[in-house]
């Protein structure tokens, strides 16, 4: 029998604080999912002769953006590790300094990333597919999207800082408005409604650019004129504290490396599937793109709980709570994430055929998508435990290196080689190829369980004011 009292915290205030963070974070992930779903549906509702190709093109064109997003998420996760613990001490001056250090790193990287993608667009897309029609559409899409790299960096920075001090409503509101704008302009620019030009897949890219500008504007207006908790100021943000810069690189670089290597690994997943030969009019890459929807439905819960877990555990350590309390917080988040991911992932799996039937794709591709849905559903619980532990528990506790080593070693030494072997040598169908690609989740499970139980991840990484000011 499972002892519920040993897993879940009994303090009602804990749940109040947790769900105050979790629900808006899940709502934000849900909104992103709705946007991705609408994007894919609208592209998939184009003329049947091009819809399947357009879906695949949008998928590979978004891979560089996804990889950049992992870099941003890694930077912000690293900053959150520090900010959440300093928020426990109510040290907002140091949080300002962390924000300044982060933006100083992100903006040049954003510009470099954007420039490289602009110069080598065709070469990058050729690495992800061997179909010239898909590559041509993907190049047109990506070249419009590139400008959003800088906008996304600025928005993500301040949204992440606000979340780390438990202010999630404004980022959620900005996301909601941005998504409404995105979906609206998708319809107008893809299909040429209300007198707008019919731009097809390029219209989807243009709609994203407009939405990212709107979202960034809302965040900047709030932090400049209305924010009164952190009280952002250029003077505080760019006041140089050597120890904070050292701490940022010490705790953030492993997270950045973790997210970037994991993101690059998923790009390799797309590349392996994108190079599978089409059989009987079936497109494995289009099926993979559609099946990602169910993974994202479950993942919106996982990411929401992981982010909230990181913030609350970091805050608890900063406040000086004992190790037993912190460890029980971690077990509670794992239990809650399990429950919610079963509900969301199970619901998506039940309605998988309804979701698949929305798209103008061939019958064989629909079969591929349904098979991939099954694989994703089976692995959801493994992903839940691993993600909440690595992204939430370890990082919130100040242990940012462990997750990096576990993810990188298992993905690159086991998952990807097995998936490549299944595709290139064994010539297996896409569902089996993808199953081998994500099998790293199974291999890293016992290591993650051991680390969680060890409590070696509980570390207070804050400094006193006198030490910071030097």
Keywords:
mainly alpha, single chain, 19 helices, 470 residues, 82% helix, globular
What does it look like?
This protein is mostly helical and 470 residues long. It has one domain. It has 19 helices and no strands. The protein has helices spanning 4-7, 12-44, 48-88, 92-119, 121-128, 132-145, 148-164, 169-191, 201-225, 234-237, 242-274, 284-319, 323-350, 352-356, 363-396, 401-425, 430-437, 440-454, 465-469.
Short description:
The chain is mainly alpha-helical and 470 residues long. The protein is built from 19 helices and no strands. It has one domain (4-462).
Biggest β-sheet: count, sense, barrel?
none
* Overall pLDDT: 86
Helix share of residues? Answer: over 70%
Q: How much β-strand is present in the residues?
A: under 5%
Summed up, the helix count is 19
* N-to-C CA distance: 54 Å
Radius of gyration: 22 Å
User: Helix-strand pattern, N to C?
Assistant: HHHHHHHHHHHHHHHHHHH
By helix and strand content, what is the structural category? mainly alpha
- Total beta strand runs: 0
Shape: globular
How many domains? Answer: 1
Q: Could you list the spans in which at least 5 consecutive residues all have pLDDT below 50?
A: none
Secondary-structure blueprint of this entry?
Blueprint: H1 4-7, H2 12-44, H3 48-88, H4 92-119, H5 121-128, H6 132-145, H7 148-164, H8 169-191, H9 201-225, H10 234-237, H11 242-274, H12 284-319, H13 323-350, H14 352-356, H15 363-396, H16 401-425, H17 430-437, H18 440-454, H19 465-469
Helix pairs in contact: 2-8, 2-12, 3-4, 3-6, 3-7, 3-11, 3-12, 4-7, 5-6, 6-9, 7-9, 8-9, 11-16, 12-13, 12-15, 13-15, 15-17, 15-18, 16-17, 16-18
